[in-house]
Amino acid sequence: MHIGVELVAARDAETRLVVSSRETDRATADDLVALAQQLSSARYLEEGVVCLLLPGEETSAIRVLEDAQRDEELHSVACNMQKQPGRVYHLYERSDGYRYFSLLSPDEWGKEEKRKEYVASYRLEPDRSWTPTSEIVKRDIQFRSLDAFLHQPSLKLEHFLT
């Protein structure tokens, strides 16, 4: 069964940035299963978010669909690690169009080649959506506001169920 999860392709020995190919060129079965589950989760959550929209919110719906499409595309980008919510991942694109995630920012690589390949950085959220780093502060404020609203003493689940 092909789910569309891709691993980062190994570079040839001349352009390899990591010394030990033994450590970087291997993927375990557990890693592949975890990547496939993450991609499947992202598709499921995309459908769930769209179902929550209220009538008359077409502009919001378009934004949600665009974000969901971006999130699904980002979940299919090559990545040699299990993605963990709360971490920032840096997206790179080689001159041949090959895209991959790294935990290292362009400055951390210290190579001009990486600065040229760098596309953007995203934080993986607990709901498996992606937040561009430029929007993290805004998203955190939204989550804190929602959390404060949901934890009001007068707000009880029973009010919504009756």
UniProtKB/TrEMBL annotation:
Question: What name has this protein been given in UniProt?
Answer: Uncharacterized protein
Taxonomic superkingdom: Eukaryota
